[in-house]
Amino acid sequence: MSEPPRKETDVARRIRAHGLARGRFPVDIAHDIHEQCAPLFGTSRVKAHRLAHGVALSDIVAQVRALYEVDGKPAPRLGETLLSAYESGYKRPGPEYLHYLCAVYRVEPDSLGFRSPCICGRGHGVRPGAATVPQPRAPERHGVREPDVPLVGSIVTRAEERPWVTVNDLRGPDRADGPLSIDVGEEDIVLRRTLLQLLAGAGVALDGQFLGAVDNLRRKMDDTLVGATVSPTMLDQWEETTYGYGQQYQATPSLRMLCDVLLDFSEVRRMCDKRQPVELQERLCRIAAQLSGLSGLIMINLGDHRLARSFFRTARTAADETGDRQLRAWVTVRESLVPMYYGDPREALHLARKAQDLAGRTPSVAAAMAPAVEARALGMLAMRGRGDAAPSARRALVRGRSVFDQLSKTDTGDLVFGFTDRQMAFYEGDTFTSLGDHKHGDEVLSHALTLYSTTDRVDLTLVKLDRATCKLHAGHPEAALNAGQEAILDLPPDHRSDILVHRARQIGAAVSAKHGDIPALKGFYEALAGPWVTSPVNDRSVPPSEQV
Questions:
Q1: C-alpha atoms less than 13 angstroms from C-alpha of 178 in its C-beta half-sphere
Q2: Cα torsion angle, 332, 336, 337, 338, sign
Q3: For residue 373, which of 107, 123, 135, 352 is within the disulfide window of CB 3.0 to 4.6 Å?
Q4: Which residues sit opposite 140 in a β-bridge?
């Protein structure tokens, strides 16, 4: 007795052969392949359909491209690598690609393993009694006619165009008769209540209910990045609102800013949940990516690096839907700030270099910012004893400055979605400080102070704290503590976000590590007394590997 097939393709080939011999249709054969191969090889439903048709990845890509051409659209970016990622479960197709995959295989999204209605609002499957595309009759062999099945290799006739329908129309009468979105309100109530408390001047703590509402809202955006319709005028307004946040980011207290951004983020999610034609999908996903990335930056300021990473993950999902490499590069380089401040600089270095690869050689915000972040990460590694990091950091600064000098005024005019001259100076000064070149670092940082507005509180305070570190490297620990203390106390209480206090505590920990328990340390911690301070003598809030 021969040994059973050991490869996925061999098993699928055998199932397909038996199915065709019995006159079964490809959709039924795909079901059989998934049932038998999924436990053995983890075969996804979308891959089972390709195996049921007995074609290669390149055949499906060619079919999708042909359908795009028939529809009069530019050739898609879909390739064999991306299609393989869909089949492996590493990526999920966006609404447009899912529509064309359904058209190719002539099935509904559920059959491909994706639980969402198709954006076209039409059925793709062949229903009993429905008109089918005429197919050449196969010849009879030994008295048995081969099954008449539509082949993936031939372009199928497109169904007659129909007006767009809403996602709720596709969900059945039990959902269509109910409210438009039953989950609207819970997160908004929490956010609005917090915002009202902030406006009233009441103290607000980041409790579990608030953080749970924030993460819940982000998860809902993940779930609803698939569907819906908005008008171009409405998108124009949301784009203006989103870029307006870039101007307010540094001047507004972080918690207040987070409430404003997430309330708009919630509204964008609701728009996604209604309708979404293909031509407006990219703009809506771009707004979602920018708002989610901005939320990630605010969560860095608030000290919740877990939620920050989650928001950047959502931003990546939305950016992937746009196909815009520059937007994906912006999300990646902004995400690198999470490990920069709260993790391992090696991870920040990896993300910065990944952002450079995404940005390519075209001058852009990410192409200028990524080498600067790389230089800061290398500076931190040099401070920890990595010998080759210092010259690499200096070369990265030169690359970053070279690209920065080519940016337009629009790119250098926004602290969030752009990369400004004051940010570039701050990154250069921070790198020199980490490399031990405190004299040069202090000169660059002093210049950066002249560029920042008094309302740019986050970066302005970080620059002041870096100058305090320069004083420590110069052998003046008391002056460093005084400068760090002054930088924090100059801020209004609602602007003393975790990232700034965390940085000040690093200075205190570094002074303690280099000079011991000097008398000025006690006064330093007493002046900064608050919920963010632990022990005034032996600060263990910063592990030795992260101390300055």
A1: 10
A2: positive
A3: 352
A4: 145
Choose among 378, 401, 408, 380: nearest CA to 391.
378
- CA 343/CA 175 separation, integer angstroms: 44
Per-residue pLDDT of the chain (548 residues), as tens digits, is 445 556 888 899 999 999 999 989 999 999 999 999 888 888 999 999 999 999 988 899 999 999 988 888 888 888 888 888 888 877 788 888 888 899 999 998 888 988 777 877 777 765 443 433 344 444 444 444 444 444 454 444 443 333 333 333 333 333 333 333 334 457 777 888 788 778 777 777 777 778 878 878 877 776 666 444 566 777 787 788 888 888 788 778 888 888 889 888 888 887 776 655 666 777 888 999 999 999 999 999 888 889 999 999 999 999 988 888 999 999 999 999 999 988 889 999 999 999 999 999 899 999 999 999 999 999 999 988 888 899 999 999 999 999 999 999 989 988 899 999 999 999 999 999 889 888 888 899 999 889 888 888 888 899 999 999 888 888 888 999 999 889 888 888 888 888 888 888 888 888 888 888 888 888 888 777 654 433 333 333 443 333 33
DSSP string, 273-326: TT---HHHHHHHHHHHHHHHHHHHHHHHHHT-HHHHHHHHHHHHHHHHHHT-HH
**Can you give the pTM of this predicted structure?**
0.58
Integer Cα distance of 440 and 123 in angstroms: 67
Q: Which residue has the tokens 């202090």?
A: 442
Give me the DSSP letters along 463-518: HHHHHHHHHHHTT-HHHHHHHHHHHHHTS-GGG--HHHHHHHHHHHHHHHHHH-S-
Q: CA geometry: angle at 69 spanning 54 and 109, to 5°?
A: 50
Paired strand residues for 185 = none
Strand-pairing partners, residue 144, are 141
